[in-house]
Amino acid sequence: MIDTKVLDMMKESAKTGAIVSAATSSAMLYRKVKKGEIDSSEVGATLLKETVQGSIGTVAVVSAINCNKGLLTKLAILGIGVAGIYGVEAISENRKKVKGV
């Protein structure tokens, strides 16, 4: 049986990670657009990618911290988080190749 408190904690962590990541990414992307380092047409996709990655990372870290099953389980949780972040990055790169961006 899955503990609903753990699921609630993960949901809140995902929301917090998304909010913080979106705010940070927005500020960084604004600066990059102003400097001409990135085209404004890339901002939406980049913001979405970085927001999802931040959310995944936050859930993984908070879950690992609150896990009481031992070091290997904590490392497995972090590894799954890293795999999720990498997966989002791979999808983004594939999208760029398909679109020719």
What descriptive keywords fit this protein?
single chain, mainly alpha, 101 residues, 84% helix
User: Could you name the ranges where pLDDT drops below 50 across 5 or more consecutive residues?
Assistant: none
* Biggest sheet overview: none
- N-to-C SSE string, H for helix and E for strand: HHH
Cα end-to-end separation: 46 Å
Residues in helices, as a percent range: over 70%
Mean pLDDT level: 92
User: What structural class do helix, strand and pairing data support?
Assistant: mainly alpha
Hey, roughly how much beta strand do the residues contain?
Answer: under 5%
Annotation field: number of helices: 3
Q: What is the 3D shape?
A: elongated
Total domains, how many? 1
Beta strands, count: 0
Radius of gyration: 16 Å
What would you say this structure looks like, in words?
The chain is an all-alpha fold. The protein has one domain. The chain has helices at residues 4-35, 43-66, 71-99. Helix 1 (4-35) runs antiparallel to helix 2 and helix 2 packs antiparallel against helix 3.
SSE blueprint:
Elements lengths: L3 H32 L7 H24 L4 H29 L2
Helix pairs in contact: 1-2, 2-3
Write a brief structural summary.
With 101 residues, the protein is mainly α.
